[in-house]
Design brief:
Elements: E1 2-5, E2 7-10, E3 13-21, H1 36-81, H2 83-96, H3 100-116, H4 121-125, H5 127-142, E4 155-159, H6 164-169, E5 175-180, H7 188-195, E6 200-202, E7 216-220, E8 225-228, H8 232-253, E9 269-274, H9 277-285, E10 291-295, H10 309-322, E11 328-331, H11 359-364, H12 366-379, E12 385-389, H13 395-414, E13 423-428, H14 431-435, H15 437-440, E14 446-449, H16 451-459, H17 477-492, E15 496-499, H18 510-516, E16 520-523, H19 528-537
Parallel strand pairs: 3-4, 4-5, 5-6, 9-10, 9-16, 10-11, 11-12, 12-13, 13-14, 14-15, 15-16
Antiparallel strand pairs: 1-8, 2-6, 3-7, 7-8
Helix pairs in contact: 1-2, 1-5, 2-3, 3-5, 10-12, 12-13
The structure holds phosphoenolpyruvate and magnesium ion (MG).
Phosphoenolpyruvate (PEP) binds at residues 293, 295, 334, 429, 450-453, 500-501.
Length: 540
């Protein structure tokens, strides 16, 4: 047995023969040319052919994975049309007197390298798209042949890397799993694998020379592990797991597109919690009716400087566009406690969960807060964006936030920048907010109950401390009464209220929450269909 561990892109189990895709790197020859204009004409014709191919790939993808997953091929078409891209290739052909294919390869590599160096993980992953369009042009210019996926036996594909167009052109029925040596979980190939529910692993440190087509392998997407030449015990285990998985999958799949409504007619909204753009694909794949909590602080983590307004605007705008008109609730940054961001240079505190965090930081550092608000206000013009303020304890904080908002709107107007004010919501995650929820409800558009923090503050127990597990009762009456009180106060003033803490995904409480009148549950994407199933089977 040969076992390798890497990053899991889509959780699932597969067992079957391997098909190795080798030598997929284009070896482009550099040739000196006489007439640059002839090469440029060839390039123009290749771009036109590539556009036609991409139109077909888009249509095929639309059938397989729907509009949001296919959109990348429209983006590829736009990239091909981008003047910066083709004029750089023209320049290279003219100045270096080289053949078009070589100019495409070198320009593609340098643009891809530029993307790879960007700080934003999402932008870094776009390098694969540049390589994909350049590879397509080279294929056309060099007359190379596309791989015939249709003649393939159902297999586990093992490759150095896969481009988005290769991934989407695969016949889903023939692909048991994907395993690549390179690639990132945020690449479009990874996103497409998730959309097509293909168990997939990336960043697997294997030597392709040691793996052969026809070898048997087991892919375990839960453990992020692939085993070549597995023993009989592992094979039997994989078979049993994949039978179970298939049964559940079919059952849940049939609930996509259905309403989240109880047998006696109470409808609730089932939204997804996400921390990045790539998580939105999980949300869509699991038929989320919206995004109920986008934890924006993840944009601030793992880096030394603050994300710029433009960077944030692009992310929020893209989130709204990916959800195509469905609501996206973005929480303003909730740094502090367990989420430490270098850029804030926070000093160590005795009691960080009760310290300088969430909205407290935003009110003390209004410049950082305003940058995020400007990005959100601008992005709100592109879809249904709402925002949530974390760690609220008082009415006074809301008034202070509204003063800052007014200043932001004035600045945007003065600069002639188009914006829309998003709906204003707050996290109810402190006992104080619950106790004054009657007053808070009059000042905001909606509530979202953060049961993770609400439980730790109500029980006075650190949510991170494993030693307290036996005492940490998340179904404690005190917490449930707080939720009930918040719902009643929100409804008294005609405001909607959701739950976005982990408790929202607790199937033992789904019925109770609906009976309390909770309007929305926002949960980890993989729980959406299971909750919908439970909701549809219950009477309240
Ligand atoms: C919560 O506290 O319940 C919540 C959703 O926020 P976080 O888990 O990010 O603190
Ligand atoms: Mg919280």
């Amino acid at each position: 047995m040969m076992q390798f561990k890497g990053k899991s892109v889509y959780k699932g189990i597969a067992l079957g023969p391997v098909m190795v895709l080798k030598g997929r790197e284009e070896q482009v020859q550099r040739r000196e040319i006489e007439d640059a204009e002839v090469e440029i004409e060839m390039l123009k014709s290749a771009i036109a052919q590539a556009q036609a191919q991409l139109e077909k790939v888009y249509d095929a993808a639309l059938q397989k994975i729907g509009e949001s997953g296919s959109a990348i091929f429209k983006v590829h078409q736009m990239m091909l049309e981008a003047e910066d891209y083709w004029s750089a290739i023209h320049d290279r052909i003219r100045t270096e007197k080289v053949n078009a294919a070589y100019a495409v390869a070198v320009t593609g590599d340098s643009v891809a390298e530029m993307f790879e160096k960007m700080e934003d993980e999402y932008m870094r992953a776009r390098a694969a798209d540049i390589k994909d369009i350049s590879g397509r042009l080279i294929h056309i210019l060099e007359g190379s042949r596309d791989i015939d996926w249709s003649s393939m036996e159902p297999s586990i594909i093992v490759a150095d890397d896969l481009s988005p167009s290769e991934t989407v052109q695969m016949d889903r029925e023939k692909i048991l799993a994907l395993v690549t040596v390179h690639g990132s979980p945020n690449s479009h190939s990874a996103i497409l694998a998730r959309m097509m529910n293909i168990p997939a692993l990336v960043d697997i440190p294997l030597n392709l020379e040691e793996i052969h087509t026809g070898m048997l392998a087991v892919v375990d997407g839960f453990k992020g592990e692939v085993t070549f030449e597995p023993d009989e015990e592992l094979c039997a285990d994989a078979r049993a797991k994949s039978r179970e998985e298939e049964k559940t999958r079919r059952l849940l799949e049939s609930l996509k597109g259905k309403e989240s409504v109880t047998a006696d007619g109470r409808k609730i909204s089932l939204y997804a919690n996400v921390g990045s753009l790539s998580d939105i694909d999980y949300a869509l794949q699991n038929d989320a009716e919206g995004i109920g909590l986008f934890r924006s602080e993840f944009l601030y983590l793992g880096r030394e400087s603050f994300p710029t307004e433009e960077e944030q605007f692009q992310v929020y705008k893209q989130a709204a566009q990916m959800m195509a008109g469905k609501q996206v609730v973005i929480r303003t940054l909730d740094i502090g406690a367990d989420k430490q961001a270098d850029a804030f240079a926070l000093v160590r505190e005795e009691n960080p969960a009760m310290g300088y965090r969430g909205i407290r930081i935003c009110l003390k550092q209004p410049d950082v807060f305003k940058t995020q608000l400007r990005a959100l206000w601008r992005a709100a013009a592109f879809g249904d964006i709402a925002i949530l303020y974390p760690m609220i304890v008082s009415v006074d904080e809301i008034h202070k936030i509204y003063e800052i908002i007014q200043a932001v709107e004035k600045e945007l107007e003065a600069a002639g920048i188009f914006y829309k004010r998003p709906k204003q919501g707050i996290m109810v995650e402190t006992p104080a907010a619950v106790m004054v929820s009657d007053e808070l409800a009059q000042l905001v558009d909606f509530f979202s109950i953060g049961t993770n923090d609400l439980t730790q503050y109500t029980l006075a127990m650190d949510r991170q401390n494993g030693k307290l597990d036996e005492f940490y009762d998340s179904h404690h009456k005190a917490v449930l009464r707080m939720i009930r009180m918040t719902v009643e106060n929100a409804h008294k003033h005609g405001k909607r209220v959701g739950i976005c803490g982990e408790l929202g995904a607790d199937l033992d409480l789904t019925g109770e929450f609906i009976r309390m009148g909770v309007d929305e549950l926002s949960v980890v994407p993989s729980m959406i269909l299971q909750i919908r199933k439970a909701v549809r089977e219950m009477n309240v």
